[in-house]
Amino acid sequence: MHFEPGRPQRANACGLLIPGSAALLQQCGPQRVPFIVAELGRDADPFMLHLYSALAEKERRLISDWTKATLEAKKASGIRLGNPHNLNLAGSRERTIQVWAADEFAQSALLVIRPIQGAGTTSFASIANVLNERGVKSAGGQMAHLLGRERAQPDARA
Does pTM surpass 0.70? Predict the structure, then answer.
């Protein structure tokens, strides 16, 4: 990453230094941008910061290279990565969990919706508006809308 001297982006980027960014540390160092590292305190020596940063960068590179080489060796030896043997089983279990969670949310939503209906609000749009006014969110954290109207109806599967 290179920044032109005297450019405000450089000072901003220097303030966003992340561990292991030795190149950025070199770019910001001549500008006398103060670096404060929580583990080392305010009086951390810039030379030591550079060393720690360079070592962390090297460690990340070594881990990445080792992981890539290991995966390539496994592939080259004919081993299929992942677990295709239980893909259908895992998918089936996840769908079961999702359906159960959706049914649980629908039952709890009915505890809120039924009194609204009892008060005379019966259209889906009006129910959605009341839910939004009360701050009631969907299972995904969204505001109520008409696409979820079938969940407001009694469960047809029962």
Answer: no
How far, CA to CA in Å, does 36 sit from each of 8, 27, 39? 20, 16, 9
Residues 69, 109: one domain?
A: no
What gap in Å lies between CA 107 and CA 99, rounded to an integer?
12
CA gyration radius for the chain?
A: 28
User: Long-range pairs for 15-21 at CB < 8 Å and ≥24 separation?
Assistant: 19/52, 19/53, 19/56, 20/53, 20/56, 20/57, 20/59, 20/60, 21/53, 21/57
Average pLDDT over the chain, rounded to an integer: 76
What span, in angstroms and rounded, lies between the C-alpha atoms of 33 and 38? Answer: 16
Tell me if 89 is assigned to some domain.
no
Cβ pair 52, 21 in contact under 8 A = no
29's tokens: 């160092």
37 has which bridge partners?
A: 41
Query: 69: domain range?
Result: 8-76
- pLDDT tens readout for residues 74-87: 999 998 787 777 77
